[in-house]
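Summary for the funding panel

The consortium committed to producing paired sequence-structure records for every protein in the target list. Below we show the first two records in order, beginning with the earlier of the two.
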Amino acid sequence: MPLFCEGEPMVFVQPITMMDFFHKSEGVWFTQRTVHHFDTVTDESGESKLHVQVLKPDDPRILTICELQGIDPAIAAGGASFMWQAHQDNQEPNPDQAAVLIDVPDDETGRSGKLLRNQGYVEKIPVVSRYWFGKDGILTIDTDYESNQGQERCWFITDDFRVRVSTVRMMNGVYLMTYCSERRCVSEADLAAMIQHNLSRASS
């Protein structure tokens, strides 16, 4: 759907490479999460903040994780760190608790490849996932753990709103499903700039 700024249409473009996806995701997001369990555990919901920071290929964290996974760091396109915290927590998140993802594309198109993680979402151990982007811009990530399999699908609705849906499958079937809607948080500096911009438009 077109976005509009100063009367000129701006066409929204879905990212189709992992690094484009990381760059589009950089910033702070407000996450509303619903988890549906397929066993006796009660369904749950919650709110949190997600901090995303893009990492350059020469970042020490990328070099360390590639070496631990036996991957040549030279073929890594870059990466990103993901830090979660409670919605009401206004402290800076602890970078030591971040999950670091590294993009190792299959080829120059960057539409598919491997994701190296220092810790997985389901099991807090180093994992290697497979990812690919569909023609519709939907990102799919498959991760095999020791006793289960996780799949996450994510796509942008606009530049500032995105959706994530994930499932965890055990040997005997689906264990849980999670739906997240995420809105980009606006910093005070960005908000002040937007107000000033609108005031200047109103006075012109």
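The next record, for a separate protein in the list, is shown here:
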Amino acid sequence: MALEGIRALASALPNLTSGAPQDHDWGEALYGAWLCGTVLGQVGMALHHKLCHALGGGFNLPHAETHAVILPHAVAYTESAVPNLLRPVAQIFGTATAHQGLSDFARQISAPTSLVALGLTAADLPRALDLATANPYWNPRPITRDALAPLLARALAGDAAQS
């Protein structure tokens, strides 16, 4: 279900972000959103969710935009621990890695790519790290402050995600 949801969104969103919204068929996007939402209701949350809630709740950043910025970075962080599980995502986007596919896709649909554009500053990073590492969620790659610091710095600047 997750892969079909990603496939549907990857197919639909580029068309929906061009032209007037009423000129597009929203069915494929709604199908993808339903599939992905259903999956989220059945699984545990990991690094991406933890980072987004720490940033959103701690700094009043906008919810959807924060998720868009963090997703490629969280996937890059985790991808080194479970490359086989994320390989189908890379295949959907036609890229070598899932995080590269998500980064390219974000740029294609003009999604935000930096936390600074959402209002976070470099001075906020120590507190963001405190919030993100307090009561950490399970993740395939262990969550540590030292490992998250460069991830958040890249996300702040809008730099490429790295594993």
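Regarding this second record: The mean pLDDT is 93. Helices lie at 2-16, 27-40, 47-59, 63-79, 83-93, 98-108, 125-133, 145-157.
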